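Weekly modeling sync, notes
Attendees: S.R. (lead), two postdocs, one rotation student

Agenda item 3: backlog of single-chain predictions. S.R. asked that every request posted to the team notebook include the full sequence so nobody has to chase files. The rotation student volunteered to paste the first one in as an example of the format we agreed on. Action items at the bottom.

Example entry:
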Amino acid sequence: MVWGEGNPDAPIMIILDNPGARENREGDAFLCGTRQTLQEVANDAGLDIDDLYVTYILKRKPVRAYEKEKVRHICMKHLDQQLKEKKPTLILCLGNVAVQSFFQNPEAEVKTLRGSWYDIRGFKTAVAYHPLAVRRRPNLRSLLLEDLKFVAECYNTLDC
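Predicted structure, as returned to the notebook:
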C-alpha cells in the first residue's frame, strides 16, 4: 500500500490515479519521471515541495489486470479517510481518471474543468493535466504550469 508522498501536513493535497510503477532503489516513487515533471512545474509555479502532499485514488502500484471500477470504489473509502485526517486547504486532481473518481462523474474531463474552483466533498478543488500527459505531449506543460500557478495564487493569497 502506498498512502502518499511528500509532506503529510502539507496544505495542498494532489490526487493522482495511482502510484508510479517506477521508483528509485530506496523505494521513493516521487522520483519517477511523472513525479519529476510535477515537482519541476510546481517549483516553476512558486510552490515548494513542502507545500504538497501527493496521494492516490488507487493505493497500490498498478497491476496488469484488475477490476478497475470496483477497486477504485473500494479505494475511495481510503481516500475519504485520508481527507478527514489531513484536512487539506486545497486539492488538485491531476488527470481524467483522478478527476472522474474524485468528482464521482465518469464524464468529467480536465480540459473542460481546468481554471476554476469546485466544492467537492467539502474541499476546494481544482484540476489539471496529469504530468505523464505533459511528458508525452510537451505542449501541455504551459497549461499544467498555468493551473499550478492558479493553485499557488489561491494558496498564497487565500483569495479563491
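Discussion: group reviewed the output briefly. Residues 134 and 140 are 5 Å apart (CA to CA).
Action items: rotation student to repeat for the remaining queue; S.R. to check formatting next week.
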